[in-house]
């Protein structure tokens, strides 16, 4: 069990929980919660690809986002596009030509910051699936409220009083922006400030990833010191 | 992907084992897998796992006009989705046989059995009724979807709360759950689907008249009895879980799917309250610097009228970068930066070399060729003044556009050659009065 207690300053990310390998049929899966927002993700791949999607030099990555109620709408498709683009950049797709890698995200609870949660869960599922990646990705969301305060990782109650919301996705090596999705109006200064804060927050998420992988491998080594599965 | 087929020897292994009364996972013949129910933070959201099979159900409601044939009743819709997450051979959108079958079974089970009291969903007869929608998503398919899905749907319906509605005369007010407690649904009875597979001489079939098998009516009765007992068990489990959830909510404890992540398990991890150690005092300063740097850069690239902001750069040899001059509303033109610098330098001053007394603006068009201007010509303050004046108006506009950052489209204006020429009659320079417009693209936004 791993817990980290940090004195709550003004800026803090919501508590994160995750469990890997929750689904038995998929190659990799993760259930990830940030505060009250929960998402379950499954990864299948590299697997057989349909003829219309086949790419001869790399794997064809597809992402599916399922909302909890109703049929998928436009903003769900937008999330799919963002996840697909982020993951196809992060994965070493050229290692698996003529195959398909599918990432399926199912919303379980929406309490703000759903896009960021989905991207982080997708990264965890990819870690669990063992498909080679160039780097890991972490997404952080933030909002700007009417008093021009910048809040990191807001929940849905806080989001009601927002005038702009921004989600940034960073890579783990250089902390470059991989994707950015914003709604609302903000000044350039506010954008830069949010970017700096979110970049700082992404460090926490990357260390969370490292911890879970370390935990898994420690137990593996402990249980089977001679043979590696 | 296609469903992987079982080989003949695998099939025969399974049937032979069953003939001996053994099951692959060691269970008894009428033993069920462990059923666990987890609830989410929203009302009407639950996840049921039957062994490894996992199903998520969510109930939502909406106000609509009722059917004309039944003006006093609400409506109930069931939607079953076999998410591609559940199994590699599930496709998106494609209604496979299994999906249709599952949907129909659940409808029979929940809708046709009339377990939900639809009349209680009526708000205003013939005008407004609650329409319930149950969405069932299969997360993992390891067999017996029917039982898992029916349990999930039923639990979700029992868990769901409809917002409180008050009708006053013509108005109908729907209260937010935070103002007034929401009202649970009325369920007459709890129909549970239990499925049995009947093996007969190696042939497989389901209980509900699907498939083909020769069975005696004794067997069916036997199954029905067992099913009744099993159903009672399931309802017990369900009520227990509901009670626990209700207690947890009343006690104010945290509920939701984060609880179903079992932290003691190997592959689970949780972290609380991740504070960011960011020195906010320096933040502002850093961002301001960044913004200024970017603005400077941008100004040179696109709206290089900012001669005043780049005063230190003026004397450098600048690469040819286009600069926009705003004249009046609706038109601007791009001039290469170099040109502008050249303009300054060729503007004669008392201190500098060059013809004196002539109209400065004649030099613009003529002097674009002379690249051998001595760099020592220091632009005197008068230069600055002159140029500043011309583009002053532009400065203001572009300035405001720059820093406010709000506007998505800047108004750029197209400079006509005639405007730039100002009051040019003739020039003494060797340079031909080229049409300035050939030098740069005229952008019309």
UniProtKB/TrEMBL annotation, chain B:
Residue span, Exoribonuclease phosphorolytic domain: 31-163
SUPFAM superfamilies: Ribonuclease PH domain 2-like, Ribosomal protein S5 domain 2-like
InterPro entries to which the protein is assigned, alphabetical: ExoRNase_PH_dom1, ExoRNase_PH_dom2_sf, Exosome_comp_Rrp42_subfam, PNPase/RNase_PH_dom_sf, Ribosomal_Su5_D2-typ_SF, Rrp45
Compartment(s) where it occurs, according to its Swiss-Prot or TrEMBL record: Cytoplasm; Nucleus
A molecular function GO annotation: mRNA 3'-UTR AU-rich region binding
BP terms from Gene Ontology: exonucleolytic trimming to generate mature 3'-end of 5.8S rRNA from tricistronic rRNA transcript (SSU-rRNA, 5.8S rRNA, LSU-rRNA); nuclear mRNA surveillance; nuclear polyadenylation-dependent rRNA catabolic process; rRNA catabolic process; TRAMP-dependent tRNA surveillance pathway; U1 snRNA 3'-end processing; U4 snRNA 3'-end processing; U5 snRNA 3'-end processing
Keywords for the protein's UniProt record, in alphabetical order: Cytoplasm, RNA-binding
CDD domains for the chain: RNase_PH_RRP45
Keyword DNA-binding: no
Pfam family name, one: RNase_PH
Annotated family: Belongs to the RNase PH family.
PANTHER family named in the record: EXOSOME COMPLEX COMPONENT RRP45, EXOSOME COMPLEX EXONUCLEASE RIBOSOMAL RNA PROCESSING PROTEIN
Protein's recorded name: Exosome complex component RRP45
Lineage of producing organism: Eukaryota, Metazoa, Ecdysozoa, Arthropoda, Hexapoda
